[in-house]
Amino acid sequence: LFVDSSAEAIYGVDLDGRCIFCNRALLRLLGYEGPRDLLGKDVHPLIFAKATGPEGSQTPYQALPVPTEDRSIHNASSRALRADGSSLSVEVWYNPVHLEGRLHGASVTLQDRSADIASRKKLETANADLQGQVLDLSRHSQEMSAFSELTELLQASTSTEELCRVVSVFIGKLFPSESGALYVLKDEGKVLEPISVWGPEGLTPAAFAPDECWSLRRAKPHYEEAGYKGLYCPHLLEPFPDFSLCLPLI
User: Fold this and answer.
1) pLDDT tens-digit map of 70-79
2) What is the radius of gyration, based on Cα positions, of the chain?
3) String of DSSP letters for the chain
């Protein structure tokens, strides 16, 4: 009666591995209607799920022995089969049972770990999201600091040349994973010459005429992406990048 009223799922086996008792908690956990579904049967193959091994062979996740050895077993991560064929994660305790000094059988206790595993996965996901938010905030803080310093230096610049030098220094800090170049109009507006290059791609930009850039011809930013419209600016060299963005500076 004590075992049957326990909240823990418990069953017992004799020396042949046949089920000799099972409590109500076990029946609820595994979805059986009554004890007759398990009593007298070789119970371990019924309860413990199997995994597909090499060449389709079936190997048990949890190999519980017929009680011929006087040893206890604890498995914190096993799979138990329910009556409907589904499975759940369980923690298993296997303990030999003695009667009048002789090994009589074994009792097996199962504890459902599915909720714990789901909670742990949610916690890991939440932790990963939090770390991502911390990184985003850190990057945002660094960007705002760089923008603040850039604004001060731009306001203190007294010539176009100084402005270009300031931009060329800070552009790599603001866009560390992108490559690009800064151009200025020369020769009375007839040609654009690169004055600064940045980024990991190691670009080697050449001078070009204003009509070779869609952004200058349209007086608005021009974004292009591989496989989208295919309207890359003529001044870009092949092979074309995955994406490009040209910005007219007024």
Assistant:
1) 788 888 878 8
2) 36
3) -TTTT-SSEEEEE-TTSBEEEE-HHHHHHHT-SSGGGTTTSBHHHHHB-EEE-GGG-EEESS-PPPS-S---EEEEEEEEE-TTS-EEEEEEEEEEEEETTEEEEEEEEEEE-HHHHHHHHHHHHHHHHHHHHHHHHHHHHHHHHHHHHHHHHHHH--SHHHHHHHHHHHHHHH-TT--EEEEEEETTTTEEEEEEEESTT------B-GGG-HHHHHTS-EEEETTTT----TTSPSSPPSEEEE----
Q: Which amino acid is at 139?
A: R
Residue type, 219: A
Burial class (CB in 10 A: 0-12, 13-18, 19+), 78: buried
- For the stretch 196-231, pLDDT in tens is 888 777 667 789 999 999 999 999 999 988 766 668
> HSE on the CB side for 135, CA within 13 Å?
6
- Distance (Å, whole) CA 91 – CA 88: 10
Residues 171 and 151: their CA atoms lie apart, in Å, by 12
| Strand partners of residue 95 | 107
HSE of 127, CA atoms in CB hemisphere, 13 A:
6
CA distance 227 to 107: 65
- What is the pLDDT, as a whole number, of residue 55? 47
Helix axes 160-174, 114-156, angle to 10 degrees: 170
Q: How far apart are CA 106 and CA 10, in angstroms?
A: 11
Q: How far apart are CA 104 and CA 18, in angstroms?
A: 12
Whether the pTM exceeds 0.70: the reply is no
